[in-house]
Task: structure prediction
Amino acid sequence: MNYRGLDLNQLVSLQVLLDERHVTRSAEQLGITQPAMSASLARLRTLFGDQLLVRSPQGLMRTPRAEQLHEQLGRMMAIVEQITSTPVGFEPSTSQRSFSLIGTDFVEVILLPQLSAVLAKEAPSIEIIFKGPDPKSIEGAMAAGSLDIAIGYLPEAPNALIKSTLFREPFVCIARRGHPALQDGVLSLDRFVEMQHVQALMKDGTMYAAAIDTALANHGLVRKVALWQPSFFALPHVVERTDLIGTVPKRVGVHAAENLAIEIYEVPLPLPQLEFALYWHERSRDDLGHRWLRDRIAALMRVQSD
Result:
């Protein structure tokens, strides 16, 4: 059978004809003339190679082929209606969806306790899978549907992703309390360059280091990084027990100073503030559940930054 000449309107006409088994009533139901309905039936007979409706003492009767088509059309039209209908609203209280997020441990500490509390109250059956950052794979993972939302500082995020800025975070320097090179409490630019550093390095992403090293390069300077490691919140523990210094988001430094023998210093050169944002793919723009979660995350992260 050649389907190239078939369109959905013909199937609608066929369904009405097979339902009504009457050409005039079918025409009235579809809002067309009786001759147009007769012509449509003739085309359908040619298309399916079957009479479809035949005369009998009880009026037009469906052929065996038409009986089969009638049953199949009912199922197919229900699917078409479902596909083309307006999406039903997302109900968080009963949803059992799973969402995949990525971000650094800095984002985890800021977001996950608050988000978990909100979900427990508003959407107890929603599952969150939080993964470590992998900047270079974000667009592909989102396009494939294996990643829903990225949260963080991504200065080289693909342009194809949709972005919503959450907050901006300054850098601070941290050093252990009683550091021999900082007895006077002053972290000068010369000292900053001379001292050895520990630097957070995300998987396949040097964005945090690049912001610092680019600013130094603008002054013709280079620092020495003795240790690269992937965790913001492990970094202060290294600083506390060594003479290494770290340059971290301010809230990481404040948290470290509250819990460890750590001192906070202003960075001795101008650095851009870190722009933390939500990122998602065009395929998820109009997904009601996705939008609900984005809005909840944005509200929580913005409150945390106030």
Notes: The chain has a mean pLDDT of 89. The longest helix spans residues 64-84. The CA atoms of residues 18 and 180 lie 92 Å apart. The two ends are 66 Å apart (CA to CA).
